[in-house]
Amino acid sequence: MPFTRRNLLFSGLAGAATGLLSSTRAFAQRLRAPGESGPPPKPLAARRSNGRAPVITPNGTSLPWRMVDGVKEFHLIAEPVRREFVEGLEVNAWGYNGVTPGPTIEAFEGDRVRLLVTNRLPEGTSVHWHGFILPNGMDGVAGLNQPKIAPGETYAYEFTLQQTGTLMYHPHFDEMTQIALGMHGFFIIHPRDPGVRRVDRDFAIFLNEWFIKPGTATPDPTVMLDFNTFTMNGRVFPGTAPMLVRTGDRVRIRLANLTMDSHPIHIHGHAFYVTGTDAGPIPGTAWWPENSVNVPVGTTRDIEFTADNPGDWAFHCHKTHHVMNQMGHGLPNLLGIDPSSPQQRLDQLVPGTMVMGSDGMGAHAEQRGMMALPRNSIPMLGGQGPYGSIDMGGMFTLVKVRDDMDYDRDPGWYRQPPGTSARRVDSMSPPPAQQQPSHEGHGK
Ligand SMILES: [Cu+2]
Q1: What does pTM read for this prediction?
Q2: pLDDT band at 435, cuts 50/70/90?
Q3: CATH code for the domain in which residue 303 is found
């Protein structure tokens, strides 16, 4: 199926629906403790509104909750998940409630929350509430604050939210495997007053990086530095859903990183302010303007801007290898060398191998359709745009700004107003001599 925005939007919605269903099912299946009585559980609460734009996790899901005796109760299920990063690449990951990253949890400052955690992994786990001010016994470091949650067991964490901001949850047991395989999620605490730091569009993007050998489906969690697949909310471009905003919207994007690398995330066509970290909101007087925000390991960053520039704007990690898709390593550097002879010899040994192009990597994108790839792997370079191939994949997505944006429907590619596009000029006559730079009239 060729990549189209419609497919992409549909698969995103389908994914969200599946996640919600599986969460709902999980609630229904929750075992009652022996002898537990009382009224039957109330139905799931609808998504709260409270006058605030809901947080959107592109390609992701939000975790439903229900009120039980004044406590907001959520249920996380730690389990292996099958995640499609983009059509052609399915990955054996670990996550929560059927997805990686796990569903986004939202609550309000002052809320009393209970988080049920059921372990369906083949090994123990725990959940740490990253950045939270909470009782020591709820902090989730296995061995230090609690026993590990053994396979099949359910634990309850319960505490009162004393702060606001973009926080996270992740295991603190066998971190190297569990976090690397995708076990992490957002826990967003809103201010009680809906007028505080209000925005029109509020997005959340969890960054991750993986090593998945081409032709395999299970990431190698022992890899320390040499990752080859970089995701935003468990998807790589062109599988990442664009963020849809209306001209004039106040936009917040929350970014989180629990990988082995920092990720400098860059926006085009706008400048933003850095407005928050995992320690909470930054006072307005201390916001600083940026075009790229480095998201260090083990942190979140909030950025805000007014979308005042219509168009399709790139939003991506600025480490150049992090905007490439699945790369096979160990190939020689052939930049500047005619690769046809080694290509032929390699083809005899390993059919379908691509060596680096002598003129850079752009040719790979051009040849994408003809490349023979190992099963369950994807080309190194991105997707199709309105003007040809976009040579970026991985941690790359789009902010689409339109005057009349329908938030529920991808508008397709931006139509640039006449006279506002870069254009080819080398086929025209050379500019007349009087248009050359002149220093006349500057005093000499
Ligand atoms: Cu990066």
Answers
A1: 0.79
A2: very low
A3: 2.60.40.420
167 Cα to the center of ligand 1, angstroms: 20
Buried b (16+ CB within 10 A) or exposed e, 414-435: eeeeeeeeeeeeeeeeeeeeee
CA dihedral 326, 231, 384, 251 (to 10 degrees): -160
Range of the domain at 146: 5-26+44-317
Neighbours of 298 (CB within 10 A): 15
- 46 by Cβ neighbours in 10 Å (0-12 / 13-18 / 19+) ranks as exposed
Could you tell me which residues are beta bridge partners of residue 334?
none
Pairing outcome for strands 55-56 and 201-210: parallel
Residue 396 domain-assigned? no
Distance from C-alpha of 222 to C-alpha of 202, rounded to nearest angstrom: 35
Q: Give 300 Cα–ligand 1 centroid separation in angstroms.
A: 14
Residue 391 lies in a domain: no
Strand partners, 230: 209
CA of residue 15 relative to chain centroid, distance: 14
**Structural domains counted in the chain:** 1
Q: Are 259 and 297 in contact (CB under 8 A)?
A: yes
Could you tell me the distance, in angstroms and rounded to a whole number, from the CA of residue 190 to the centre of ligand 1?
A: 28
Structure-model confidence comparison of residues 263 and 39, the more confident one = 263
Measured in Å, residue 392 CA sits from the centre of ligand 1 at 12
pLDDT confidence of residue 382: 79
Q: Can you tell me the distance from the alpha carbon of 180 to that of 229, in angstroms, rounded to the nearest whole number? A: 12
% residues pLDDT > 90 (the chain): 68
pLDDT in tens, 205-246: 999 999 999 889 999 999 988 999 999 999 999 999 999 999
What's the CA-to-centroid distance between 121 and ligand 1, angstroms?
Answer: 28
Please, what is the Cα angle at 378 between 377 and 380, to 5 degrees? 130
Distance between Cα 373 and ligand 1 center (Å): 25
Residue-wise over 239-265: b if at least 16 C-beta within 10 A, else e?
A: bbbbbbbbeebbbbbbbbbbbebbbbb
- Domain membership of residue 211 (yes or no) is yes
Three-state DSSP class for residue 357: coil
Residue 381 CA to residue 441 CA, distance in Å, equals 51
